[in-house]
Design brief:
Blueprint (H helix, E strand, L loop, with lengths): L1 H9 L14 E2 L8 E5 L6 H8 L3 H7 L13 E5 L5 E2 L9 E6 L6 H7 L5 H8 L11 E7 L23 H4 L47 H4 L21 H9 L5 E11 L8 E4 L8 E5 L6 E8 L12 E4 L1 H6 L6 E8 L1
Parallel strand pairs: 1-5, 7-11, 8-10
Antiparallel strand pairs: 2-3, 4-6, 5-6, 7-12, 8-11, 9-10, 9-12
């Protein structure tokens, strides 16, 4: 299980931008002195930080009592203030913004968290974090606002640098046999037991993925890892329809043409895959393997249908995500962000 999770983690796309190697943006201080800390990397200047964090370069220098002419040093920690210029706590986040997290302390309440962070409305916190109640768990991370998009900033909460040893480049091309991609056009009906109506690659290719082989059906190795801790108590895998059925048709069958639907809203992420054009796949923590999820981008109304492969791996860079999609789905949803806001609908 751990090996599978690390394999998936290694396939996450390297994020671009001025703070790509930073960990998640974690807020420091309390209102009205909120800020994040940035560790200076090779080649960074006050100007590049100003572009990344949407602040005047001289303001950053002044905030840190550093001479603007002196410049920055490698490894130096720089205080980046969060204010009305670069920080938003509106209900609907900036689609190109970056989430800012707070690490929950012992016995901390949702109300206290709100007061310490500009009295952000409780409903906004629940909305951003897909929360249904007011309970907080110690050492968990909660979104308290969004850093507005700057000249070079992209989501720093999914840095590939946090799992450098887990990337196995050699496994990626070998993971998808050419024969498995065109299999959906096969007129022969699938075996009722597998969750995906396509040809099964040789058993030797099963260890690396469901993620790198989205068109692969369940194999004997999968039942051992599907009872993930994230799926405890969930419904059994959904049975596939005959070959040739589109994901939209399967979604309508599963939901009774949209009558029995559960909904979620929150941040989504993505992973690399070699899926066939027009075929989209997903990782989700509660929907059974084989469930078809309708994913909508509420900012432009675009939507796609994606098939669940397994649960989202419980690693640092996935915290707060409600879904992860195969990379081809991003263009169809009209976004290229590493983390994006979305709405989900699937079988109740």
């Amino acid at each position: 299980m751990v090996k599978t999770f690390m394999t998936i983690a290694g396939l996450v796309l390297c994020v671009a931008g001025g703070i790509q190697a930073q960990d998640r943006l974690q807020v420091q201080g309390t209102s009205p002195d909120l800020y994040v800390l940035h560790t200076v990397k090779k080649g960074e200047t006050f100007y590049s930080l100003g572009r990344s964090y949407s602040l005047p370069p001289k303001q950053i220098a002044s905030e840190n009592n550093i001479s603007f002419e002196q410049g920055l040093q490698l490894g130096q920690q720089v205080k980046i203030p969060l204010n009305n210029t670069n920080f938003s706590q509106k209900s609907e986040p900036d689609p190109h913004g970056t989430p800012v997290f707070h690490k929950v302390e012992e016995k901390e309440t949702l109300y206290r968290l709100s007061v310490n962070h500009n009295k952000v409305p409780l409903d906004n916190i629940r909305h951003w974090n897909n929360m249904t109640g007011d309970g907080l768990q110690k050492d968990s991370y909660v979104i308290v606002g969004w850093l507005k998009s700057g000249g070079g900033i992209t989501a720093p909460s999914t840095p590939v640098a946090s799992v450098p040893a887990a990337t196995p480049p050699a496994n990626h091309p070998a993971a998808t046999p050419p024969a498995s991609t065109p299999a959906p056009s096969n007129p022969a009906p699938s075996n009722p037991a597998p969750s995906t109506p396509v040809a099964t690659p040789p058993a030797s290719t099963t260890p690396p993925p469901p993620v790198t082989k989205p068109d692969q059906p369940a194999t004997p190795a999968e039942p051992a890892k599907t009872p993930d801790s994230n799926n405890t108590g969930s419904k059994p895998p959904v049975t596939s329809a005959p070959a040739g059925s589109s994901f939209e048709q399967l979604y309508n069958q599963q939901t009774g043409n949209g009558k029995n639907v559960s909904s979620e809203k929150g941040p989504g992420g993505w992973f690399k895959s070699n899926a066939s054009p027009g075929k989209y796949y997903a990782l989700h923590n509660t929907a059974p393997r084989g469930t078809i999820i309708k994913v909508t981008n509420p900012l432009n109304g675009k939507f796609i249908y994606a098939k669940v492969l397994e649960a989202i791996p419980q690693i640092k860079q996935n915290e707060g995500l409600i879904i992860k999609l195969s990379d081809s789905a991003l263009e169809a949803l009209g976004t290229n962000e590493a983390k994006f806001y979305c709405q989900l609908s699937y079988e109740d």
